[in-house]
Every structure is written in structure tokens, then in C-alpha cells.
Design goal:
The structure is a single chain. By secondary structure, the chain is an alpha+beta fold. The chain has one domain: 2-Layer Sandwich (GMP Synthetase, Chain A, domain 3), CATH 3.30.300.20. A three-stranded mixed β-sheet has the order 1-2-3.
């Protein structure tokens, strides 16, 4: 006779991997659906990450685009136009009891990294110019 499985007392250890997997699956499904949507305004939009709560009530979709900060308002509007379609696609593909309500936000981590890269590049160019001037 088999023994009953023990339940782990550390629920956080089980919850994190599940949520991380779910976030990655959602990112892939959403990115795939964006390629299927025939809207040229979404052509250069990249889904960078998804953060869904444990109860699958809400999901925050982080994105970046070649339009940068100047294009955020337009892209947010377009993503909102297609939000229901994207959520339906999630429901069909995941076959989950619930589909999270999506909220779209620009990925500020990517933007901050780009700004840091610009500062470092400018500093490197300045040092290179100074080194050439010294020669």
C-alpha cells in the first residue's frame, strides 16, 4: 500500500516556481498573440515580462518598443484595444479556470538600462577624445 504524500510546510518554495513558470508561459502566449494581431502599430513591440498574482486575478504585462518613451501612449492605447482578444487567447491556450485581467506598462527596467548605457557610452567617448587630444 502506498503512503500518502506529505505536504510541504514551505508553501513559498512551491508557489514561486509555479508563478515563475506561469509568468513565462503568459509572456509567450501574449507575445505570440501580438504577432497574430494585424496592427502595424504593434510591429516593433516586445513583451519583456509578465507578473501575475497568485490567484490569477490580475496580470501586469511589461513591454518595450523601438518607439521608446515617445510611443508609449499610442502603444498603450493599441494594447488596450486588443486586451480582450489577448485575454481570450490566454484562456483558450491555458485552459485555466480563470484568465487574469491584463494591464500593460512600459518596462522601466529596460529604459533605465538604456539610459545607463548612454551615459557610459558618452563617458567612454569623452575619455577617448581626451586621450587623442593628449597624443
Amino acid at each position: 500500500m502506498s503512503r500518502p504524500r506529505k505536504r510541504s510546510t514551505n508553501s513559498a518554495a512551491h508557489r514561486y516556481p509555479r508563478e515563475a513558470r506561469l509568468n513565462e508561459i503568459l509572456r509567450e502566449v501574449i507575445a505570440d498573440e501580438l504577432t497574430r494581431i494585424d496592427d502595424e502599430r504593434l510591429e516593433f513591440v516586445t513583451v519583456t515580462s509578465v507578473d501575475v498574482d497568485a490567484e490569477l486575478n490580475r496580470g501586469i504585462v511589461f513591454f518595450d518598443s523601438l518607439a521608446g518613451e515617445a510611443g508609449d501612449k499610442t502603444i498603450l492605447g493599441v494594447l488596450e484595444e486588443h486586451r480582450r482578444r489577448i485575454q481570450s487567447s490566454i484562456g483558450r491556450q491555458l485552459r485555466a479556470k480563470k484568465t487574469p485581467v491584463l494591464e500593460f506598462r512600459p518596462d522601466e527596467v529596460i529604459r533605465a538600462a538604456e539610459r545607463i548605457d548612454e551615459v557610459l557610452r558618452a563617458d567612454r567617448e569623452r575619455r577617448d577624445r581626451m586621450a587623442r587630444d593628449d597624443d
